[in-house]
Amino acid sequence: MAASSPEGVPETQDGKRRQFGNRFLSDPARVFHYNAWDNVEWSEEQAAAAERKVQENSSQRVCPEKQVDYEVNAHKYWNDFYKIHENGFFKDRHWLFTEFPELAPSHNPLADLPLESQKHEEHRSGEDGPGWTSEPHGCSCTGHGCDTQVPPVEETVTQKLGHLAICADEFPGSSATYRILEVGCGVGNTVFPILQTNNNPNLFVYCCDFSATAIELVKTNSEYDPSRCFAFVHDLCDEDQSYPMPKDSLDVIVLIFVLSAIVPDKMQKAINRLSGLLKPGGVMLLRDYGRYDMAQLRFKKGQCLSGNFYVRGDGTRVYFFTQDELDALFTAAGLEKVQNLVDRRLQVNRGKQLTMYRVWIQCKYSKPLLPTANGEVSTPHAT
Length: 383
Hints:
By secondary structure, the chain is α/β, with parallel strands linked by helices. It has a domain at 40-103 and 172-367: 3-Layer(aba) Sandwich (Rossmann fold). Helix content is 25%, strand content 20%. It has helices spanning 44-57, 64-72, 74-85, 96-99, 115-118, 152-162, 191-197, 212-219, 267-277, 294-297, 323-332, and strands at 36-37, 178-183, 203-209, 229-233, 250-256, 278-289, 304-306, 309-311, 317-319, 336-349, 354-366. The protein has an 8-stranded mixed beta sheet with strand order 1-10-11-6-5-2-3-4. Strands 7-8-9 form a 3-stranded antiparallel beta sheet, with no helix packed on it. The longest helix has 14 residues, at 44-57. The protein is globular, with a radius of gyration of 21 Å. 40% of the residues are buried. One of its GO terms (cellular component) is cytoplasm. It is an enzyme of class 2 (transferase). Keywords: Cytoplasm, Methyltransferase, S-adenosyl-L-methionine, Transferase, tRNA processing. Its EC number is 2.1.1.-.
């Protein structure tokens, strides 16, 4: 198996990674033959045990004073995380091109659109993932009134964005015809594979993160090309911060293990703002933690902030979703469901003879197309 292929993920004969759901454990005696098994069904006993574990580790909550600290100083905890790990914590997410073809260079987003809609568009081409050892982190956000000193690089970028006059004719990437934004980009494990794989001169990629340290690591990476990419510091929850592109300008927005890192009661407004950036027909792609994932069951008493929302030992936070919760967030933002799937995966440490049950949710929601001449609107097929 190629080194770039995530552990436990089968490949096709041409070396490409298959979508999840292609390796099934039919014989429990073979559980340690591979590193991972897809679409593993949970027994009623296993599901009940997971629910009991969550009730147990949620019975003692973090005190209000500490909760305020984790919110107000969230940027500090994420900066510290990236200062420690730099760009060595996560693997590049090449699997995204299989799960989300919208990010692949061969993707033609106009293929499924009505002809009436096509004439209004220019031609465009086109966990975390399955690594069992790493627990993905996303960007977080801070509350207002933070009294912690902001690093100079974050202050500079934020000031520039705050005074940036966004217009339809002049903004970073304004000449591109296919635009992708990754929110919570970290050190570029999604952005750089996109840029490396897609040489389309009409593609422009934006990436933002709450951590100024992470953005600095992106900009100093040898693969960073300002003519094809624009990286900036951004607080997903700060409604006063501007995005460096106008509304209705993006084809794809990517949220990979990032929404789970913000306070639940701020999620809806964050998704609403992002939805406004999508073009009609544009899509929002998400992969994030699902309810009863191994990571949730491993938390101890005293780490729970609120229902299904926890703080890690390093001060970063994580929420564990259900499909219905995510569907409610996206549909309330005016988006339509294309995909909303649970990826239940059994990951295996064959050396230590350990089994680990992971639960991720993968979503794709689209912005409704503008009505055509006959008043019809195309609705994507939902799964």
